Amino acid sequence: xxxxxxxxxxxxxxxxxxxxxxxxxxxxxxxxxxxxxxxxxxxxxxxxxxxxxxxxxxxxxxxxxxxxxxxxxxxxxxxxxxxxxxxxxxxxxxxxxxxxxxxxxxxxxxxxxxxxxxxxxxxxxxxxxxxxxxxxxxxxxxxxxxxxxxxxxxxxxxxxxxxxxxxxxxxxxxxxxxxxxxxxxxxxxxxxxxxxxxxxxxxxxxxxxxxxxxxxxxxxxxxxxxxxxxxxxxxxxxxxxxxxxxxxxxxxxxxxxxxxxxxxxxxxxxxxxxxxxxxxxxxxxxxxxxxxxxxxxxxxxxxxxxxxxxxxxxxxxxxxxxxxxxxxxxxxxxxxxxxxxxxxxxxxxxxxxxxxxxxxxxxxxxxxxxxxxxxxxxxxxxxxxxxxxxxxxxxxxxxxxxxxxxxxxxxxxxxxxxxxxxxxxxxxxxxxxxxxxxx
Length: 439
Hints:
By secondary structure, this protein is mainly beta. It has helices at residues 19-38, 45-76, 81-87; strands at residues 102-109, 115-121, 128-129, 136-142, 148-154, 165-170, 176-178, 186-192, 198-205, 212-219, 226-228, 235-241, 247-256, 259-268, 273-276, 283-289, 295-302, 312-319, 326-327, 334-340, 346-352, 361-366, 371-376, 386-387, 393-399, 407-413, 420-421, 428-436. The strands form 7 sheets. A 4-stranded antiparallel sheet has the order 3-2-1-28, with no helix packed on it. The chain has a 4-stranded antiparallel sheet with strand order 4-5-6-7, with no helix packed on it. The chain has a 4-stranded antiparallel sheet with strand order 8-9-10-11, with no helix packed on it. A hairpin with an 8-residue loop joins strand 21 (346-352) and strand 22. The chain starts with 18 loop residues before the first helix and ends with a strand. Mean pLDDT is 82; it is low at 1-28 and 30-38.
């Protein structure tokens, strides 16, 4: 059969094809020859798409796995204070009518390290800041009539040099009156006399770790400040007034030639006479008067031969003249901060075993040393316990729980096994004091 081919149907040399066809054809031929020479088949466009999808799936799986791991870590760690507060509804605290005439003042550490004073009702409601953010304020002490607060004020510019002074605030108006003006020395710990006519305080000379403190008295308006000193004392601290206002008991520390000892002195206000109450063998501190003014509860420190890093402190009882010293506790632990109930029948105190801060308890005993009840508290508790005026509650400062170490103010009904949390914030609050509401 003879096939006729026209010029148009016959194969044409590349030079005679259009330019855009010749370029494409040459590239295809070159690619085919290259793959044939290497023995590798060309990757099709569909395969590339699947490879991209597979890579995306792997990346997504890695991201999801990392997110799950982060979530497990977040669930495993304790919640932050802010997270816990967001999940907690503060309880409503019911208080008896006998406490409605009282308020609570306390110190709170705020952002930037500033200490401020806050006031609240006995049930924790109506909390409000009563000192300025422009200075530190701490160690509040309420006057017997509840109208005034004495406290220590430290200007921020010299806060690190401990140059402070004692001020009095009118609770109603907020007006401040400066009572002390020491060229050197730092006034600390003001305490009102029961009649509201005098204020006892100590003055720190030098730094807290290397200085010493002396005891001073002044009138409630700041006039007639005078020092009460003994040449044998290296430091005096912690003055407490007798219920009748006629005497002051305070702790002193004697340090000479490497020997250090603490004891108690009694000052008669009228005669200005000092009487040593405790023997040198009794390392005593933290005195507190019985309501009738006849006895003192004190803490006595001793070495722990089994664990030198964990000294022992026990609670003792003694007559106001220093006689009949009797040991009440035998915990072989650190028992401190005794506080006498208003009826004079019970003594509350902190006890911290050697196992650590998480095992701190508040204990209540009779005046003959019989344990009545104990309340476990979280973390490290504050230095003082404050009985309510009706004797049915105890104020104290302790961690909010084992996870949140910022201290809160707590109110413990002594006949219950749980305390009520009065402050709910992420600040550290301490030093609660009962003050009478103004009528």
